[in-house]
Structure formats: C-alpha cells, structure tokens
Fold this sequence. Notes:
It is a single chain. This protein is of the alpha+beta class. The chain has eleven helices and ten strands. Strands 4-10-9-8-7-6-5 form a seven-stranded antiparallel sheet. Strands 1-2-3 form a three-stranded mixed sheet. It is extended, with a radius of gyration of 29 Å. About 15% of the residues are buried.
Amino acid sequence: MKATNRNSGSMDGNLRLLGGLGLGASLMYLFDPMVGRRRRAMIRDKMIRVGHKTVDAIDVTARDLKNRAAGYVAEARGRIFPKEVSDEFLAERVRAKLSFLVTHPSSIEVTASDGVVTLEGPILKHEVDRLLRGVSAVRGVKSVDNRLEAHETAEGIPGLQGEPPRPKGGEVPELLQKNWSPAARFAVGTAAGALLLYGARQTGIAGATAAIFGGGMLARALTNMELKRLLGIGASRRGIDVHKIINVSAPVEEVFSFWTNYENFPRFMANVREVQDIGNDRSRWIVAGPAGAPVEWTAEITNYVPNESIGWKTVPGSPIAHGGIVRFEPNPDGSTRVEVKLSYHPAAGAVGHAVAALFGADPESEIDADLMRMKSMIETGVPPHDAARAQ
C-alpha cells in the first residue's frame, strides 16, 4: 500500500511539473517582449473569426435540419397516403436511380404506364437482379416488366461500350461519403460529444475506448474532414490546403526572377535557414522546426513557365509531404499579382495543424508574414530584419 501511494504521489508530482512547464512556456510565448503583442493579437483575431464561422455554421445547420424534416414528413405522407403520379414523372424518378444500380445507365430505356415500369436494353447479367430490386423499391412503382437483354460480358455490345465501369451497389450512405451535410455533422457531433463525456467519466478500457472514439467522431463532425486526413494517416501530401494572394509593386519579370533565386528565401522567410540547388530541378531545404530543431527535405520542380508559374513537390520520404504552385500575373498598373497554392500533410494531420494554428506556428500563418516580407523586400530593396537570414 505504501509503495502504491508513493508511486501515485510521484506520478501526481510529475504531472504537476509538466503542467507547470507547459504553462510557463505558454506565458513566455504570449508575453514575449518582442513579438508577444503580435501573437496575442493574432490569437484574438483567430478566435473572432472562429466565432463568426460558428454563427454561420449554426444558421446553415438549422436550415438544413428544417428542410430535411420537411422532406421526411413529405416522404412519410407520400407512403401513407400515396398519390398517383404521371407516367412521365414516374419514369424520370426511375431514371434518376439507374446510375446507382448499373454501370451503363444510358443503355437502359425506361417507360411507365399506370405504375408498371418497363425496362429495355442491354445489361450485364450480374446487374439484372440489383436493377430489378432497386426499381421495385422506387415509390410509385407497382410492378416491373423485365425486357432486358442480359449479357455475360460487354464485348461486342454497343450499348455497353464507351463508359468506364465503376462499382455500384446503391447510393453511398452519407456517413461513408467524404463530405457530410450540416444535419449529419450536427447529429454525429451531438452523439460523439455525449459518448466522449460518458467515456471521460468511466474507468478502464471501455471508458478510454468510448472517449477516444467519441473524440475522433466529434473532430470528424466539426471539421468535415476524413479521419485519415484529420489524423495524417497515409502518404498523401494532400492534408491542409493554403491559398494566398498578394500584389507586389514591381514588374512580373522582376518578381519571377526573385522567386527563382533560391538564395532569396532565407532573406524573407522566418523559418527557412538554407536552400541549396542540388541540380536536376531539385533543391534541399533546411527549416526551423519545433523548438528550433532543423527539419530537412528535398523538393523537385514540377512546373516551370518563365514569368508565369513555378510548381514543386517534395520527394518521397520527406518528413513533411507537401507541394504547391506559385502563379505570377501582371496587373494593368505594372504591378504583379502573386498567387500561392500549397497543400501539405502536417504531423498528426489536421489535429496537429489546428493546435499549431492557434499559436501561429503553421504554414498558413507563416506564409502571410513571409509574403509581406517578400513584398517589402522587392519594393524597397531592404531585407527585413526578422527573416531567418537578416542582413
């Protein structure tokens, strides 16, 4: 018993120590005499923007729930008190379902008469039963007249050519789709929040499992982002998208030349320590990572149109997979419009991005400041003092 108490006390002490260190680091970050005011203002602006987005999301969700409720009521009323629909309308209703049931919907001819739907045309044999079941389930269909021409393969059948087959099996349930509707996000978020609270109050594996699952689904509902992107699972560089535009008071040739000189990047970017041209359209980058630790990757040029665009992507195996393109467009007044599009896969996915974004330590926040320094450097010729390699 004494040993258990000692271990428990030691653990509590360690947790308090870690909490104190974290609080101290946060206070130092926010109240830094040089940049603390800017950081606090940035966090305040982000919170205001989140508040505005929350209000808009609530309004959209309320309207979606209202419309869905009206739709469900109308659907229930139609099933309980069915009304006769015109043959034309019923045929259109069936045609709207074909793309979910067969791989070549345009090959199927649909006619309707007094609730009897007639299907004609070539079809792959293994799709016949699925089509008949799906059409029979359409509201208003009393029976199905099967006049289909079933074929084992599509070879030599004109009606089954020209459209790449794709897997079917009915409409994809909403929760299995990439993007959820506001109503689905609200329903899942509410249930996930309740599960998270339940799990937090329980002990043991069951409670931890409930809390983890509830937290994951709550994050999925709040961000409307697939879990693999949310958690950074997989090798895709597509995780977070950043889009920025800035106008520079200089000719497009000058701005493009500035960007194609790798030595300029450390002179206006805060975290880029060094960029080396290693040949074959590749470059090696060294940037300041978490706690100032150096992070290195190799990038290769994927698009190069003089005075128009530069595209790049990291090579396989890079610690932070990312890619993007910068476009340069001359304005009528002689200035240049610079458009930056960047996609990157942060550590811990969007969750890691969200934590970093609160304190401005993410590419989206950094690019804003970097672009302003770039603009100032080109327009004035004076390198900024707060870049990685100030001069």
